[in-house]
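**Backbone geometry record:**
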Amino acid sequence: MELCRNRRKICPIMWEMPAATMKKSVTRYEELADQLSSQIRAGLFLPGERLPSVRSSGRVHELSSNTVLQAYHLLEDRGEIRARIRSGYYVAPQAPSSPEKAIEPAGADKARPGSIAELAFDLYRNAKAPGHVQFGAGWPSAELFPLAKLTRALKTSVQGLNLNAWPVYIQDANSELSRYIARRSLQWGFDGTADDVVVTSGALEGLLLCLRAVAKPGDTVAVETSSSYMQRCATEQFGLRTVEIPTDPQHGVSLPALAAALKKGRIRACLFTPNFHHPLGASMPEAKKRELVALLARHEVPLVENDVLGELHHAQDRPKPAKAYDRKGLVLYCSSFSKSLAPGFSVGWALPGRFTKFVRRAKWTTNTSSGITTQTAVAEYLKQGGYEHHLRRLRRSLASLQVQAVQALRRHMPSGTVIVPPAGGYLLWVQLPRPLNAAALYRLALQKKITIAPGAIFGSSPHHQNCFRLNYSQSWTPRIEAAIGTLGQIASSMRR
């Protein structure tokens, strides 16, 4: 009785709590089963994959083999795993799993519900979802690339690694690749050597390294009114201020507006895409590129040029980059093979002009070097001499696909929709009649397993709200045609 009184004094709330509200204690094996179930749902173990052995799980979780067996038996009773005699336990084929989550970059926790950041992350996740019509993807369809030949080249590059030489992680850029890029740049009007080439992990790294060479945190950089979401994030994370220069969907950045901004004396550098602008598709005429370079030279302002789509021209001749008109070394040229040959290989390069030494050192301090095996694989493919043939076929395919996409959009989208077909690339900028909202169209289309890229993620201007970017690089099939029709029906219903 005295013990009861002590208990009542020590914990009166527990003493008076009704039995029905007492929390059920969880055993160790139930706890382990729930933990493994969560891991299966999160996709750490896929259907058909083997779970860790009973002995291994016991060591990791500091549990007896009998406790682990009880947990596995509980999961087996739930239908989440299956036992195989003398083999172990495997995730059941019908085991539930969560949809693939987007890998969010640093700072993603700042994204507010309904914000542009959240919208961009949502698009990134859904642009990888299987079974969707991927008009919203930012990369070309894999079916356009010589993947079998690249795989053989990659195998050759791995077999050719000399493990007795210096460790591969401190090797310099592939010399054959650098020479090829330098030779190819001669066709574009450059005057450089392999020593002027800095091989990077894709074009985005090249842009970041070049920005580090010409600006410091707090400086102001001129950008186009529309630009890729990742490029905008990169400038923000580097601590740069940006001033947007009006950009025409046909002829590119406004030189009078740029000249006015330069007169104020606060522009440290420019970050532009003169050829096949992403996402607008604009291409600056050659005379305008020449004038742009001359204008910046008079003010001694560097230009970081993004030419990642330069090889994907639909006309006979490749448009020259702005770098071709550079006589003072102020144009830092960036491109990659990601959109023209090897998506996923992340092999890019920069030709930084007078800033080459700084960019090379910045590259070395950032990640030492880019992937040696992928560099060697691309160099091996290029050495075989099939790149030009591949490019010609790729350009023809994209030009044909663009015609079909534009015709379908004009048939199905509401009257008043404006489309300006670009002279290259694989992306269309579609302007819906106001007051239609492209972000709302994106969410409604997603319910039909169709993705588009709403214009709001490409710039802060209110003029983007009724625009979206459409990727037309997939093979034209009845399913693709039907998806365009569905977009048109949704947009028309929104208008009503």
